[in-house]
Amino acid sequence: MSVEGIEFVTVLVRDPRTQKEDSWHSYIDYEIFIHTNSMCFTRKTSCVRRRFREFVWLRQRLQSNAVLIQLPELPSKTPFFNMNNPHHVDHRRQGLQEFLENSSSGLGPSDDSISCGCKASPASEES
After folding, report:
1. Which of 49, 72, 79, 118 could bridge across to 102 with cysteines, CB 3.0–4.6 Å?
2. What does the alpha-carbon distance between residue 74 and residue 29 come to, in Å, rounded to a whole number?
3. What's the pTM value of the predicted model, to 2 decimals?
């Protein structure tokens, strides 16, 4: 098989940004970028912003559908997370990146929800 014929899916978690909900509440969201040549996807590139609680939601949904597969863990939700500390933010970003990479490698083409968690997630869940 030639190199051109090999399917790939590249998932990147990048560009963390602080978002303010109001004067007291803020959160960090991350850009999730997918580039692929896989026939399983209708779009070859996709980009969306998601926050930590949406990764939690995605993992819960994937786990409920993947009873025979142990999904990787998300980075821990620590009470000492400081969104003003670039090291904390980047460490979480790396953990989310690893989660998406490892989750997508263990799931088949029918597990469409991995593509950025693009299905709507409930807004009522806490981050």
Report:
1. 72
2. 15
3. 0.75
Reference 41, options 79, 4, 10, 82; nearest CA is 10
**Mind giving me the DSSP string for 83-116?**
TT-HHHHHHHHHHHHHHHHHHHHHS-TT-GGGTT
* Residues 117, 60: Cα–Cα separation, whole Å: 11
In whole angstroms, give the CA distance from residue 37 to residue 39: 6
Closest residue by Cα to residue 50 from 102, 99, 86: 99
pLDDT in tens, the chain (127 residues): 445 678 888 999 999 999 998 888 889 999 999 999 988 889 999 999 999 999 999 999 988 887 777 888 899 877 778 888 899 999 999 999 999 988 876 554 444 444 444 444 444 334 3
Structure tokens at 47: 């980009």
**What domains, with CATH codes, occur in the chain?**
3-108 (3.30.1520.10)
